[in-house]
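It would be a great kindness if you could assist me with a short task in structural biology. A protein sequence and the structure tokens that stand for its backbone fold form the material at issue. I should value your view on which stretches of the chain appear to form regular backbone elements. The record follows directly beneath this note.
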Amino acid sequence: MRVHAHVHYYPPYRMAGSETMAHAMMRALADAGHEVTVVVSDMPEAPPSFEYDGIRCLSRAGVSAATAQVIVDRPDVVVSHHQNATHANLAARRIGAKSVFVQHNTFGMNKQILATRPDLTVFNTEWIAAQYEHKAGAWMVVHPPVWPKDHATAPGDHVTLVNLSRHKGVEVFQKLSRAFPDVPFLGVMGGHGEQITWGHSPNVTVVPQTTNMRDDVWAKTKVLLVPSVYESYGMVAAEAVMSGIPVMAAPTPGLVECLGEAGTFTPRDAPARWVVRLRELLGAPGAWDAASAASLRRATALDPKPELEDWVRAVEGLVPALVPVPA
């Protein structure tokens, strides 16, 4: 079976949660014996053709050019998400292919996309599925896949924020770094949003976006901060718990679903409470060890293998005649 992904960004040039999730899903299809191609519409920094982790990728100048590439290639299944999904679903219908829409959030464009009636909708969380399942036809839930082998390591000594944008909570990060001048803080630049790389205190180290989160981020991190305005899931939190790193997070529905009882939840708009909770986590006897143990228990519960196997079966079910026959 020939599967094309029609997306705006893709690793290794963009490494936000949607991109890493899309790659994990495409990699699972390739591992099952299917021919996978990713067509990218909005990454001028990428060459016209490149390979990432064994996946063939084509970079085209804009969504119209990417859609034209999909139509010319005539795959059996077209997978898409975000702003490219309407174009992808309509292109799939034009060439007689099946369409798959991966919904990562609850933003307004999703109603328009679902109105194009994709053959399969994949919600990235149960809480989003509960809000939108009545608008979808066939649907399933696949949480953003995180593999321990890609992230698990011995934690470090920094308090870390991934993505230095205002929506991700850079102001909370800056206030905490000033309140704890003797604690090293790590700010990791993100793949979207304006990155606030100025105005940090001397105990803050800012590093660029990386494809090696295990060695460049988690091996340096003792506590992860996720004081976001909105997280549909919070993939970075799932990555952190693979190393037993405690996560302090805003109680968005996605982060609550992601972290469960392992999360240390504090309202984003209560910075004084973040100071108190971080002081307890770093200084109270046994507090960090207990939180780390909770994170490791959560990591075990987040095994992505069963849902990715369900994903592959669901896509194969769209075109059953083209499923590879085991040798």
